[in-house]
Predict the structure of Nickel transport protein.
Amino acid sequence: MINRIKLFVSILAVSLLVWPAAAFAHGVDINYQTKTAVEIEAKYDTGQPVSEGQVTVYAPDNPAKPWTTGKADENGRYIFTPDPAKPGTWDVQVRLAGHGGMVPVPVGVDSDVAAAGTGYTTMQIVLMSACVIWGLVGTALYFARRKN
């Protein structure tokens, strides 16, 4: 009988500890928006990140005036969200202690195609394919000749 009472009291105590937790908690309202952001990562030729590098972003409609500026983190990373109303090539410059560089970032309708592309022109792809075919044919002819 005493064990049943201890069990009942234990279950009641655990229930009381768990039940009011939600009643005394503060509510949190979380909203989100989906935006396309650009993350850059700047490194020196040695592979070291450009820590705390000065970042300057230029919009395509006014490449002479910085659209925004900021500072890269300790890993050389910087994230910005370009204005979707300004499609085109955005220029991002990273500099630190006289070293730095600039990278063009396509934003807009063609940016997905440019990002997914191989970086080769159609003529380069045709030329590389012809070279591969020529190499395969030459190799096949070489081995075919040795058999005779």
Q: What stands out?
A: The helical segments are 2-24, 111-116, 122-147. DSSP finds three helices and six strands in the chain. The CA atoms of residues 83 and 128 lie 38 Å apart. The chain has a mean pLDDT of 81.
